[in-house]
């Protein structure tokens, strides 16, 4: 089997039909689509039932990261990816990945570009795949779209490398940093592979602009996870936390500039 697509879901019946359709219409490859549902109370189960290509698992989990890992453990495809329940694959995406993988046998992780779309699924802006740079990933932040990223199962998941379930927001950035630290090879693709939906219900957006205590704490947790990555994999000239925060700020902007230079070079 060429691919396993894992979709973690919880009360996303409003969007998951588009996600499932985008996978069902992929041609020229073999794949399985595992939907890991945490016990949705909406019409998710009914929507999934309309797509015979999908395998539906419904059981409680400890959060999205745990749900994705449950799918990873069941995966049988040569290449594995997770597709959020509100995101979509572009037509022909899987064929493009398979063909690109055949001419890049050294790759452990392949990733392409993606389009941001709004809640209605309308185009907002495009993010091309940039060359892999470990320092930009750690010091500035994750710039690889999880919904456009594929892992060679035998050299990642099959070796026991799963998402860290202590991470609930930047589990993708932590995963990429850990795989790169272990020597796994990341190769960017020139194709745009997926649509990433931005809306107020997504976990990355749900605490923005809200000043109640629950959302402030959620936002602080979201901000803390990248700081933990910098402590683990980043540049650490000082043991003092306050001094380290100053260095983090400087390096953030240094590598933000380097990322910008990569984007400029990409479009020349």
How would you characterize this protein structure?
There is one protein chain. Strands 1, 2, 3, 4, 5, 6, 7, 8 and 9 form a nine-stranded mixed sheet that branches. By secondary structure, the chain is an alpha/beta fold. It contains eight helices and nine strands. The model has no long low-confidence stretch (mean pLDDT 92). A hairpin with a 5-residue loop joins strand 6 and strand 7 (123-127). Helix 5 (134-140) packs across helix 8 (241-266).
What labels would you give this structure?
8 helices, nine-stranded mixed β-sheet, globular, alpha/beta, 268 residues
As a percent range, the share of strand residues is 15-25%
How many E strands?
A: 9
| Percent helix range | 25-40%
| Separate helix tally | 8
Structural class call reads alpha/beta
Q: Please outline the major beta sheet.
A: 9 strands, mixed
- Summarize model confidence as the mean pLDDT: 92
Query: Termini separation (Å)?
Result: 38 Å
The geometry reads as: globular
Uncertain residue ranges: none
Rounded Rg: 18 Å
SSE order, one letter for each helix or strand: EHEHEHEEHEEHEHEHH
Give the secondary structure arrangement, pairings included:
Blueprint: E1 3-9, H1 13-24, E2 31-37, H2 44-49, E3 54-58, H3 64-74, E4 79-82, E5 88-89, H4 93-102, E6 109-117, E7 123-127, H5 134-140, E8 149-152, H6 171-181, E9 186-197, H7 213-233, H8 241-266
Parallel strand pairs: 1-2, 1-4, 2-3, 6-9
Antiparallel strand pairs: 4-8, 5-9, 6-7, 6-8
Helix pairs in contact: 5-8
């Amino acid at each position: 089997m060429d691919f396993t697509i894992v979709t973690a879901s919880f009360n996303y019946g409003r969007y998951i039909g588009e996600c499932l359709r985008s996978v069902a219409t992929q041609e020229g490859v073999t794949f399985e689509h595992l939907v890991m549902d945490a016990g949705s109370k909406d019409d998710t189960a009914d929507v999934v039932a309309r797509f015979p290509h999908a395998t539906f698992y419904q059981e409680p989990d400890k959060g999205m990261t745990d749900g994705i890992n449950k799918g990873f453990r069941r995966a049988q495809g040569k290449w594995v990816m997770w597709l959020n329940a509100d995101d979509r694959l572009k037509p022909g995406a899987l064929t493009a990945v398979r063909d690109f993988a055949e001419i890049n046998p050294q790759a452990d992780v392949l990733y392409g570009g993606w389009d941001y779309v709004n809640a209605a699924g309308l185009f907002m802006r495009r993010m091309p795949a940039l060359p892999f740079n470990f320092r930009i990933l750690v010091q500035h932040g994750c710039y690889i779209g999880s919904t456009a990223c594929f892992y060679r199962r035998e050299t990642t998941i099959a070796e026991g490398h799963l998402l860290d379930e202590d991470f609930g927001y930047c589990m993708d950035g932590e995963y990429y940093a850990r795989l790169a630290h272990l020597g796994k090879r990341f190769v960017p693709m020139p194709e745009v592979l997926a649509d990433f939906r931005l809306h107020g219900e997504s976990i990355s957006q749900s605490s923005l602009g809200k000043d109640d205590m629950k959302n402030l704490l959620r936002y602080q947790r979201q901000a803390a996870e990248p700081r933990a990555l910098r402590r683990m994999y980043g540049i650490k000239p000082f043991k003092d936390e306050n001094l380290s925060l100053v260095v983090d700020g400087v390096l953030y902007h240094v590598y933000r500039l380097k990322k910008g230079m990569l984007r400029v070079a990409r479009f020349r």
